[in-house]
Structure formats: C-alpha cells, structure tokens
Amino acid sequence: MRWRVAVLLAAVFLGTGIYGAWAYVRAYSVYRGFPPPSDPHGIPSGRLVEVHFHSQALGREDAYMVYEPPGFQRLAARGVRFPVLYLLHGTVSNALHYVNVGRVGVSLDELLAAGRTRPFLVVMPESSDGSFVDDTEWANTRHGAYESAVMEIVHQVDQHWPTIANRSARAIAGLSMGGYAALNIGLHHLSAFSVLESWSGYFKQTRSGVFSGASPATLRFNSPAAYAPSIAAALKRLPLHVFLYSGRQDRVTRYQPGFARELRGLGVSVRAAQPPGVHDWRLWRAQMPVALQYAGRWLHGPGSAAQPGRGHPRRAG
Question: Is the predicted pLDDT of residue 35 greater than 90, yes or no?
Fold first, then answer.
C-alpha cells in the first residue's frame, strides 16, 4: 500500500512540476528576452554557480548551488560580506527546481531592482539519496546523516564565500519536506539561524519512511511542534523570526494556526499566511517574492568585511 501512495505522490509532483517548468520557461522568455542583453526591462541579473565537494557527513560527493545576486562580484571585491538564505528541496524535487520552476533568481533580481530587499546569497543543497522520491526528511537517521550534511554545507559556504558568518545573517527555508526540515534543523541549531521559513511544511514526524522503527524520543526530537517547548529558555536567549505559509486548500493548513500559536507563546516572532492554493509549484512560485522579502527583512544586511574576501570555491556547471 505504501508504494502506491509513493507512486501517486510522484505523479502529482511530476504533473505540477511539468506545468511549473512550462510556466517558468514562458515567463522567463518574456521577462528576460533572448539573448540576455536584450532584456527589455534592463534589470541586472544574478549568476548561478554549482559547487561540488566531498561530504564527510554522507561519505560521498555532494553539491550545492549558489545564486549570486546582481553586482555580487563587484561588491565582494570591495570586501562586502553577505547574508545567506539556505533553501531545502522537497521530495520528488531538487535544488534546480527552485531556479527553473520556482523562479528564485528572477524574483530576487526583481526585488533588488525595486529596492524591496537587500542583496543576499541563496544556497540550495543538492543532497539526495539517489531515489526518485528522495524522502530523506533532511534528518539524521539510519538512512543517512542529512541534517549533518546541511550544517556541513553551512560551514563550507562560510569558509569559501564572503558571508557574514553569524546567526543574524543566516536564514533557512524550504517547501514541503524541505519546509518541515527548515524548522527541524533550525530549532536544533538555534545558534546557526535567526530566520526560519516553512512553505507548505509539516510540524510532526511519524513512524514511517526514514523514521520507521524510530523511538518515541526520536520522533519528539524531530517534531518541531513537540520539540520547540523543550527549548523555551534557549528561544528567549536566541530570538527567531519565523514565516509559515500553506495553501488554503492544502490539508497542512489545518495544523499551521496551532503551531503558530505555540511558537508565539514561546516568544517567537511569527508571520503566518494561508494564500489560496494547494500543495504545488504554482503556489510556491507565486509566493517566492513574499518569502524572499521576509528573509531579506530580518537578515543582517551586507557590511564591510574586517578582512578581505577569501575567494571562491571550485566551480562546475
């Protein structure tokens, strides 16, 4: 029975992904023009970079993508350091979908051109288990150390890119499974992130998938709704800004108000929204500017470096 559910979910995500890809290509061609110099709006564009490295956490080659905002090279050469937004992909998805379907780069370019946010790097881990569904929950389980892999990438980025290396300049977000993981990892690592965003994410873990056979203690530790009250004191010392949204027609929406109230009761600054939509790329693409602007509002902005930038990592793609 479980495999039938997985196949059905895969079909749904594939269908929405195909629609999203078509919509993205159509909108991108109208907005950008071909070639890029013929951009009718004259909006500067950023650059996508892929980085490969050996992951100690996963014991194999791993990769992440970085979207550099327009003017990044020039500013970095002057010693400017940047905040970072980390984006975790969902199941039946990958990091490139944020660019090709979610329009993250174009949305950031538009916000910057309109003066509605400050420049920051967008880092998208590509970590995958190699399967079609790719249900890792971005958690440390017997299936793999995926939470540790995310934190390893944070360390990699701070080592090799001109970042502002403290929690006030780091945000973590994601959609669906990635939205759950952004909360789970963010709450586990309060000293690393000050902004958390969950887009159509869930807040409670169950004894299924990579958590099959997990103990009650493990499930509580990996359920943001259960774990947050256990770190109430830390949440007072290390303030968080949290953005939650889920489509009004998505069943996840039922649980969002209760979780938002719980976080507010713990002193967390929470913005919650229920825009029209279901659990698909049409919703996530439409909300991308809202989510990016929220992150940009609370991230500590670019500042002059105390020391020169440390250059760039090996690049591919």
Answer: no
